[in-house]
TrEMBL record:
Pfam families: Trypsin_2 (PF13365). One of its GO terms (biological process) is proteolysis. This is Trypsin-like peptidase. It comes from the Bacteria. It comes from Actinomadura soli. GO terms for molecular function: serine-type endopeptidase activity.
Length: 490
């Protein structure tokens, strides 16, 4: 599992790591803010099950009835522990194919329902006891179980919503209830309601993840903290989707973290300003203690999975280089092709079975053309094979195009010296090589002498003239022309 988590850790470290001259990078402040939702607003009582989840991050979540047969509201056992629905990424960092089920929640996780701005004195956090199900494979969903019962919640007038068995509506008016925190004053980090429209469902990629049938929307005010937010049809009372991701304006790139793209037969498309929600229909009819039930459409996470250790590569001699983690399976079949035009869930196109122990690494050559590609894996043991609808996958971009931006170098004046360092531009420039020295002795065009930038500034005394050189690289290793910054003595 460590190999599959490596790429995500690298991406996240780049995207949220400390940037020169500032703090951690965060999502842009919410624009065209959605209005705060008060408990006394018309229809506001419908949203008492929605609240703040404090887990691996701050998100929005909703109390739901237990999914599965025989769980109509009238049949609800008030003694049963309450279930809360949110986005998968709200409860941890996931590899592309990871599924978690039946795990104890870390200490300190809480959920506070009825998270209205006008009822702060009545907010009551409940401890989260366990993660019943969570994944970012194909969907971005998580169900956690509280230490409190449905009866405990009913005592404060919080009753669960049902999960819809239908996919998110297309072209319909929707309401989204969420509690953003990024760019929001701390005394306003409460529930808000966005009234907007959903568009035609589409598959979405945000490396390394792929989500099927995501619902685009133009909802206002979506920002960090909104994830997991409730989506219902206008005036509806059934959960149809939860908020998943947004195309951010503060980073660049396509199909990267914070820059999700739509994928399909026409290739890859990015739609700035669009947010996406994940339908909850796969959860409907699925008893969480029996993921193998015939009515369950959730991925049980049983198949062999390829490692996802790279985001982008140059075409020259590029290969998949994807290690297979057997996960108890002995044999596998694979297929590859352009992302969006290759559906891992389609049984057609897979090759002949092979023993995983004989081929533990898929090292087939990648196509030499620039594009996004997917490697699909189905696996089995004996006569039992994971169905193609639960195929595992990994993706990579073949990219030979240099960054579209030039290196940026900061030189801060510290009286007797300069603090000089290059500035990352996610995801155009994610690494730098640098060198510096006396101006007359350094030629930035000469490749000799460059060293990797270690995220520490160079402190250059103002006793001489300096030249600082920087070459930026994207995720595939494509380089910018060298940037020269000359500094004159005081």
């Amino acid at each position: 599992m460590r190999g599959r988590l490596f790429r995500i850790a690298v991406i996240v470290a780049i995207a949220i790591g400390v940037v020169p001259g500032g703090g951690p990078a965060v999502a842009a402040p919410a624009k065209n803010e959605a209005p705060l939702l008060r408990s006394t607003d018309p229809g506001g009582e419908r949203f008492r099950p929605v609240g703040r989840l404090k887990a691996s991050s701050q998100c929005t979540a909703t109390v739901i009835s237990p999914p599965g047969p025989g769980t109509a509201p009238g049949a609800l056992d008030p003694r049963a522990r309450a279930l809360v629905l949110t986005a998968g990424h709200c409860v941890g960092r996931f590899s592309a194919n990871e599924v978690r089920a039946g795990l104890d929640a870390p200490a300190g996780w809480t959920f506070t329902p009825a998270y209205f701005v006008d009822t702060v004195d009545r907010h009551r956090p409940f401890p989260v006891a366990s993660i019943r199900y969570a994944t970012m494979k194909g969907v971005d969903l998580a169900v956690v179980e509280l230490a409190a019962s449905y009866g405990d919640l009913a005592a404060i007038d919080v009753r669960p919503l049902e999960v819809s068995a239908a996919p998110p509506p297309e072209g319909a008016s929707i309401e989204v209830v969420h509690a953003p925190v990024d760019g929001v004053p701390s005394d306003q980090e409460y529930l808000r309601r966005s009234r907007c429209r959903s568009a035609a469902r589409t598959d979405v990629a945000e490396s390394p993840w792929i989500w099927h049938g995501a619902s685009p929307n133009d909802c206002a005010g979506i920002a960090g903290g909104s994830s997991g937010g409730l989506v219902v049809q206008r005036d509806g009372r059934r959960v149809v989707a939860v908020l998943n991701t947004t195309v951010e304006s503060t980073v660049s790139g396509v199909c990267k973290l914070g820059r999700p793209c739509e994928i399909g037969p026409g290739g890859v498309v990015i739609r700035p300003g669009t947010s996406y929600a994940i339908g909850v229909a796969p959860l409907s009819g699925c008893p969480l203690d029996d993921l193998g039930a015939p009515t369950c459409r959730l991925d049980p996470g049983l198949g062999a999975a390829p490692s996802d250790t790279r985001v982008a590569v140059r075409s020259e001699k590029a290969r998949w280089d994807a290690a297979l983690e057997a996960e108890g399976r002995t044999h596998a079949r694979i297929k590859t092709g352009p992302l969006g035009r290759t559906d891992c869930r389609d049984p057609a196109g897979y090759g002949r079975p092979f023993a995983i122990q004989d081929r533990p690494v898929i090292d087939d050559p990648l196509p030499p053309r620039e594009d996004f590609y997917v490697l699909c894996v189905v696996s089995g043991k004996g006569s039992e094979w994971v169905p193609a609808r639960f195929a595992s996958f990994t993706t990579v971009q073949v990219d030979d195009t240099p960054p579209a931006v030039a290196p940026v170098v900061s030189a801060r004046d510290l009286d007797t010296q300069w603090a000089v360092e290059p500035i990352f531009q996610i995801f155009e420039i994610v690494h730098y090589d640098i060198k510096y020295g006396a101006r007359d002795a350094v030629d930035c065009a000469d490749p000799a002498g460059y060293q990797p930038y270690r995220r520490f500034p160079a402190f250059l005394a103002k006793t001489q003239a300096w030249r600082y050189c920087a070459i930026g690289y994207d995720l595939a290793g494509n380089a910018t022309p060298p940037k020269a910054v000359d500094l004159d003595p005081a």
